[in-house]
């Protein structure tokens, strides 16, 4: 095992504590303190909007971080400098606890800093391995994901208590201290890391091959791919023009999705035209990236469901009863935000259970647990979690008092889905990406989270439409129950499509060769 791995793992544990520490108390803080000037009827919707807008930012900025690392600074320097911005963001949250502009500045800095480093730490882990020890990479990726949830568990358990008992300055200040420690630990291992330098300008880069494919002329043939890409660009402009009615975040993210979707289709339609001007290896590399992006696109509904455990599920928990619990003589009541601690503790249990029990059992009966099979099954489990949470909401809408402990079942199902999708996705994204594109392709993996949260904003905005709200009312469902079942059906349909695509996907091996 590479001796530098402990520095990266320790850094990730502290960083994840800092991130989830502030993230998991963000919705309760918005509802109880920062957004009190908003009418009660509108406060929940605004808190969800702020939360998911923040998450969109966190998972959009990996595009910037990946590009800077791959082309200019390299992964280590990019992670270090963006971490300092991250620390400054935490400081703003602690200082500007009652100042709307200052607090939102802190959220923006955290989104920028956290997003900038997010794809690079994972890729940096992969850089520490080559063909001689790549068999240990899966163990480290699992340990990496385990430590993320170790930090998340204690943050989810403790920060709601600190927010309640000591106020937001302390509750947001502690995660800032942990992020400063994370940066220091990462810096301490600087002389031990394998530093893969930024890629030199490459005439056969993804963008160069894509541009050649779209613009190349062939005698007697039109350029249908260019027309498709152009249609996507026009649709993106139309989306941006809708900013006054949709809001900037929804309009801009929708424009980005349209550009990527139509551009990718257009490139694939004319990709063979790039042969000759570019190497066969480069052309096939672009084809591989496009295939990976299809997988990422079908992961987005999972993130729509997963990230709402920190918004929609907390809102539901606020209306549930919390019974008095006793452990070893210590009596307490769970706070709504503390229910999120169930997720990381189950992850820490399920990862070793899957590796040492479930997956070996599957192999014994002749079923190979390939990454795509695991991810497809994970999406299906997340859909089932939302069916259960929707049934709980119907129970509550009927006027019954419901214990907060009923959320344990949907948390368990969602967590099983997370382990199968997210932990597997980190390994899949690195192994499938061409060598010159690892930082960027991991950025696209995180962009899938942005798109997933975009679906949430679109659905929330749609529910506010008078025609839609009247239709929901006529169905006999409350708005929140309708959204829960909508997202469950959304994920179930995509899980079926994912299973069909997985049958056609051919895995490749893009780990670094021995030096």
UniProtKB/TrEMBL annotation:
<feature type="transmembrane region" description="Helical">
    <location>
        <begin position="20"/>
        <end position="38"/>
    </location>
</feature>
<feature type="transmembrane region" description="Helical">
    <location>
        <begin position="78"/>
        <end position="96"/>
    </location>
</feature>
<keyword id="KW-0653">Protein transport</keyword>
<dbReference type="GO" id="GO:1904680">
    <property type="term" value="F:peptide transmembrane transporter activity"/>
</dbReference>
<keyword id="KW-0472">Membrane</keyword>
<feature type="transmembrane region" description="Helical">
    <location>
        <begin position="408"/>
        <end position="428"/>
    </location>
</feature>
<keyword id="KW-0812">Transmembrane</keyword>
<feature type="transmembrane region" description="Helical">
    <location>
        <begin position="345"/>
        <end position="365"/>
    </location>
</feature>
<dbReference type="InterPro" id="IPR000109">
    <property type="entry name" value="POT_fam"/>
</dbReference>
<dbReference type="InterPro" id="IPR018456">
    <property type="entry name" value="PTR2_symporter_CS"/>
</dbReference>
<keyword id="KW-1133">Transmembrane helix</keyword>
<feature type="transmembrane region" description="Helical">
    <location>
        <begin position="169"/>
        <end position="188"/>
    </location>
</feature>
<feature type="transmembrane region" description="Helical">
    <location>
        <begin position="479"/>
        <end position="503"/>
    </location>
</feature>
<dbReference type="Pfam" id="PF00854">
    <property type="entry name" value="PTR2"/>
</dbReference>
<dbReference type="InterPro" id="IPR005279">
    <property type="entry name" value="Dipep/tripep_permease"/>
</dbReference>
<protein>
    <submittedName>
        <fullName>MFS transporter</fullName>
    </submittedName>
</protein>
<feature type="transmembrane region" description="Helical">
    <location>
        <begin position="143"/>
        <end position="163"/>
    </location>
</feature>
<dbReference type="GO" id="GO:0016020">
    <property type="term" value="C:membrane"/>
</dbReference>
<feature type="transmembrane region" description="Helical">
    <location>
        <begin position="288"/>
        <end position="306"/>
    </location>
</feature>
<keyword id="KW-0571">Peptide transport</keyword>
<comment type="similarity">
    <text>Belongs to the major facilitator superfamily. Proton-dependent oligopeptide transporter (POT/PTR) (TC 2.A.17) family.</text>
</comment>
<feature type="transmembrane region" description="Helical">
    <location>
        <begin position="246"/>
        <end position="267"/>
    </location>
</feature>
<feature type="transmembrane region" description="Helical">
    <location>
        <begin position="377"/>
        <end position="396"/>
    </location>
</feature>
<dbReference type="GO" id="GO:0006857">
    <property type="term" value="P:oligopeptide transport"/>
</dbReference>
<dbReference type="InterPro" id="IPR036259">
    <property type="entry name" value="MFS_trans_sf"/>
</dbReference>
<feature type="transmembrane region" description="Helical">
    <location>
        <begin position="102"/>
        <end position="122"/>
    </location>
</feature>
<keyword id="KW-0813">Transport</keyword>
<feature type="transmembrane region" description="Helical">
    <location>
        <begin position="224"/>
        <end position="240"/>
    </location>
</feature>
<feature type="transmembrane region" description="Helical">
    <location>
        <begin position="50"/>
        <end position="69"/>
    </location>
</feature>
<feature type="transmembrane region" description="Helical">
    <location>
        <begin position="440"/>
        <end position="459"/>
    </location>
</feature>
């Amino acid at each position: 095992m590479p001796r530098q791995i402990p520095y990266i793992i320790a850094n990730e544990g502290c960083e994840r504590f800092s991130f989830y520490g502030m993230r998991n108390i963000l919705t309760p803080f918005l509802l109880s303190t920062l957004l009190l000037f908003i009418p009660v009827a509108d406060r929940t919707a605004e808190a969800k909007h702020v939360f998911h807008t923040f998450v969109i930012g966190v998972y959009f900025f990996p595009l910037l971080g990946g590009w800077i690392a791959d082309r200019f600074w390299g992964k280590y320097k990019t992670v270090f400098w963006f971490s300092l911005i991250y620390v400054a963001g935490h400081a703003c949250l602690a200082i500007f606890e009652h100042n709307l502009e200052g607090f939102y500045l802190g959220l923006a800095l955290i989104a920028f800093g956290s997003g900038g480093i997010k794809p690079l730490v994972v890729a940096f882990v992969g850089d520490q391995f080559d063909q001689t020890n790549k068999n240990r990479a899966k163990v480290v990726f699992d340990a990496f994901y385990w430590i993320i949830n170790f930090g998340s568990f204690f943050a989810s358990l403790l920060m709601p208590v600190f927010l309640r008992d000591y106020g937001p300055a302390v509750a947001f200040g502690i995660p800032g201290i942990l992020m400063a420690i994370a940066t220091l630990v990462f810096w301490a291992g600087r002389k031990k890391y394998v530093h893969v330098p930024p890629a030199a300008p490459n005439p056969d880069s993804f963008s160069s091959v894509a541009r050649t494919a779209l613009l190349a002329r062939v005698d007697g043939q039109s350029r249908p791919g260019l027309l498709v890409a152009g249609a996507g660009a026009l649709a993106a402009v139309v989306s941006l023009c809708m900013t006054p009615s949709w809001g900037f975040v929804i309009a801009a993210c929708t424009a980005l999705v349209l550009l990527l979707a139509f551009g990718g289709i257009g490139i694939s339609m004319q990709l063979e035209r790039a042969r000759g001007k570019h190497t066969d290896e480069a052309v096939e590399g672009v084809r591989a990236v496009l295939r990976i992006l299809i997988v990422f696109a079908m992961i987005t509904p999972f993130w729509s469901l997963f990230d709402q455990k920190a918004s929609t599920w907390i809102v539901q928990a606020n209306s549930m009863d919390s019974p008095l619990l006793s452990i070893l003589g210590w009596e307490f009541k769970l706070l709504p935000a503390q229910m999120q601690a169930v997720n990381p503790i189950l992850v820490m249990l399920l990862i070793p259970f899957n590796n040492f029990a479930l997956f070996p059992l599957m192999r014994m009966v002749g079923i190979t647990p390939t990454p795509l099979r695991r991810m497809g099954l994970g999406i299906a489990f997340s859909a089932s979690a939302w069916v259960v949470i929707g049934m709980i909401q119907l129970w509550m809408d009927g006027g019954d008092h419901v214990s907060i402990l009923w959320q344990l079942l949907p948390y368990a199902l969602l967590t099983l889905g997370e382990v199968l999708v997210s932990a597997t996705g980190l390994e899949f994204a690195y192994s499938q990406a061409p060598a010159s594109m690892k930082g960027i392709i991991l950025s696209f993996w995180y962009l899938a989270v942005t798109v997933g949260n975009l679906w949430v904003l679109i659905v929330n905005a749609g529910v506010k439409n008078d025609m839609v709200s009247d239709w929901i009312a006529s169905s006999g469902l409350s708005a929140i129950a309708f959204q829960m079942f909508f997202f469950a059906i959304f994920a179930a349909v995509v899980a079926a499509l994912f299973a069909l695509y997985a049958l056609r996907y051919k895995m490749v091996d893009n780990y670094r060769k021995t030096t």
